[in-house]
Write a structure and sequence with these properties.
Blueprint (H helix, E strand, L loop, with lengths): L1 E4 L5 H5 L7 H9 L3 E6 L2 E11 L3 E9 L8 H15 L4 E7 L4 H7 L3 E6 L7 E7 L1
Parallel strand pairs: 4-5
Antiparallel strand pairs: 1-2, 2-3, 3-4, 5-7, 6-7
Length: 134
């Protein structure tokens, strides 16, 4: 397994799976080096996209692992890889979120994230905000 910055060659793979942002933003995120791609023998098997909360706190927006590769620790490896890069860049705090009806909240807590609040939108389940000190 290999984790690297996404490139234009990964664009189609990502947009076919990321239904949460407009396609045009995927290219921007690739150019800004805010998407990592996960490969197994040169085949894309997942990706992680991030941005910045308040323009200065790294915020993991989305992590995706193709279904047949889930449950193997790949997501954890991706998150820990990203955390190390953020630490090397001098960040001391990182964030992510997940909906309260998703299992991901338990995954994040197991690897050291702590509940930091929540957001309730009219048409969505409760969004749980999680932070981790690096």
């Amino acid at each position: 397994m290999k984790i690297e910055l996404a490139t234009e060659q990964d664009y189609q793979y990502i947009v076919e799976r990321d239904r949460h942002i407009p396609e045009s933003l995927v290219r921007t995120k690739i150019r800004e080096k805010e998407i990592f791609i996960i490969k197994d023998s040169e085949k894309e098997i997942g990706w992680m996209r991030y941005g910045y909360f308040w323009d200065n706190i790294p915020f993991m927006n989305m992590i995706w692992i193709d279904e047949e590769y889930r449950g193997r620790g790949i997501g954890k490896e991706m998150v820990l890889y990203w955390e190390e890069i953020m630490r090397e860049r001098g960040f001391e705090l990182i964030m992510t979120s997940t909906q309260s009806n998703e299992e991901a909240q338990h995954f994040y807590r197991k690897i050291g994230y702590r509940d930091a609040g929540c957001l309730l939108l009219e048409t969505q389940p409760l969004e749980v905000i999680l932070t981790k000190n690096l």
